[in-house]
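Illustration 12: cellulase.
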Amino acid sequence: AGDYVKFGFPMASTLTILAYGALEFSETYNRIGELEHIKDTVKHGTDYFMKAHPQPNVLYGQVGHGATDHAFWGRPEDMTMDRPAYKLTTSKPGSELAGETAAALAAASILFADTNPTYSAECLKHAKELYNFGDKYRGVYSDSIPDAKKYYKNYHGINGVEDELAWAAAWLYYATKDTTYLNAAKSHYSKKSGIPFEFSWDDKYAGVSVLMYKLTKEDKFKTDTEAFCDANINNG
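Figure caption equivalent — predicted structure in token form:
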């Protein structure tokens, strides 16, 4: 797009999936000499997320104005326009953005647990705080950061925050084995209606069912995953 806007919602989704892939296929990444590269890539993002989370109930969710940045074609070193930073707070919440960022950091905490336990613990601390923030202070992030509506809007409204909260709680259970998070993930997941249309930056339910089956081996999550795959194959 020729711009350098930091859109937190799709960025966090990307980081979660990168960390997930590094965990699931670590042997292959290692065999082809790319494991440290993927870890460096994930850490580049999680370093930013932790800086963007200076307090338990504050998360900077976007840096840069969409239209202004889109209109500029050039090097970031040459950008002189105002580039505002937009944050979530208790009065301007964003449950899905806080949840997805928590998921990314929780996944990263697992990825770095063996090789960098101090960094892993730091990621996990931020993940827990962000999940609590998103769960306690409910709201749609693109209402709190209106500029994001033009680019990465939450298309499901307030009902569309449960999937990210389920995703975050599932990853936190994976990282901690604390059944409080498992029960929370199941509770959030129970709000799902029908078969998801896609697995994307805005809809995590299909990913939740895969991860929850890995963690629990409960038939419900296997059945839901199969239904999602069948629907995409038959209706794609």
